[in-house]
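Example record

One chain of 186 residues, shown exactly as stored in the release files.
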Amino acid sequence: MILSNNDIVDFIDDRKLIIENFNKECMRPSSYLLRIGSKLLKMKDGTELIDTKKDDTFKFFEEVLISDDGVIINPGDFILASSVEKLSFDESICGDLFQLSCYARIGLQLNFSSCHIAATFGIDKPSSITFEITNFSNRPIKVYPNVKFCHLRVHEQKSSSSIRYRGIYSGKDEARPSDFNKKPAK
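Predicted structure tokens for this chain:
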């Protein structure tokens, strides 16, 4: 079951869902809009192989700060960014990310496959969400910090999870590239 705006507020009040940096203007009828933070990790140009059995891919990225004047994402750029909000889900809920249609309609793609947020994500420490952003258009696109960037849909599970999310991306305040030393190709 997808939670309505009223359900989301009730789950926040009951502490089943924590949204740090909550902004009531981000509520939608059946979602909450997450905002993009001011720090990006941009994949560097290059031809060095990424080994999905052993590489910590942080070395393939450079940090970029988004000023109030915005930052340009060029065609083909691959960016990691974090949400302004930090989330914590209890054992009874999970979430999905969906980009805003205004960005899709200009060729900006968000989290093209890693859209799921597991139950118990951030349960020990509310955590930011990493956005994976690619410009598939043929034009540069400027984005700005702290703007509404994607839908978070929250789902109530039929039963509570009996295991906890133990992924390496929970507990983080900022975007984190893949670390194949730790996950998942072992």
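Notes: The chain has a mean pLDDT of 93.
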